Amino acid sequence: MTPTVHVSAEGVAIAIVFTSAMAALLVWMFSVPRPVRAEVARARRALDVARVILAPTTSAPYSQRGVELACRLAQEQQAEVLLVHVIEVPRTLSLDMPLREAERQAREALDTAREVVTMHGLPVRTLVQRARGAADGIIAAARDNDADLIVVSIGPRRGALRLWGSTAEALFDRAPCEVIFDKLPE
After folding, report:
1. Which CA distances in Å does 39 have to 42, 77, 135?
2. Residue 99 covered by a domain
3. Which parts of 31-119 fold into alpha helices (H)?
């Protein structure tokens, strides 16, 4: 006596779905990605290694755009955003001299910038850096905190880079990492 086999439509459908899913999985597993030139791979990897991105902040509205750009660059690798506000201390005063109004403005600028970073869900640190010049403070903060990238935003005025003048030049010459300048359009 031969046993009878009952084939149901549901069983056939499940077998077809299972076989199709396994075939798709195997095709995906064994498909080789298209080749990429070495130059392209290096350019892609260069931004992947950013773990700490420094964004100098001021009370100017364009400063928050630089923070936003730093956040977008940090998102893919969940890099930490280091917000730095440099208090420029005149040479006639000692660096540790209390400057209440400048410190208040620094805290306000950092709090606003922190909100931008928090909206992106990224790790954030803030730092008030005292220095004789903005570039010296930014460079010291980058060096002391092992920054991989500095993102500086510049206002829309014509010649804004010239206004930054020595700061921009010092960052180009002495920054211990990559620097991106973002100038707002008019």
Report:
1. 5, 21, 32
2. yes
3. 38-48, 61-75, 100-119
> What's the domain range around 125?
46-183
Residue 133 lies in a domain: yes
68 within a domain of the structure (yes/no): yes
| 125-143 residue pLDDT tens | 999 999 999 999 999 999 9
152 Cβ contact partners less than 8 Å away, ≥ 6 residues apart: 55, 56, 66, 138, 164, 168, 171, 179, 180, 181, 182
The two beta strands, 149-154 and 124-131, are unpaired
Separation between Cα atoms, residue 164 and residue 154, nearest integer Å: 8
pTM for the whole structure: 0.72
Q: CB 97: neighbour CB atoms within 10 A?
A: 10
Give me the mean pLDDT over the 97-118 stretch. Answer: 93
Task: Enumerate the β-bridge partners of residue 153.
Answer: 182
State how far the Cα of 150 lies from the Cα of 171, in Å rounded to an integer.
Answer: 9
Q: Which two tokens stand for residue 66?
A: 């630089």
CATH code, domain carrying 94: 3.40.50.620
**Number of domains within the chain:** 1
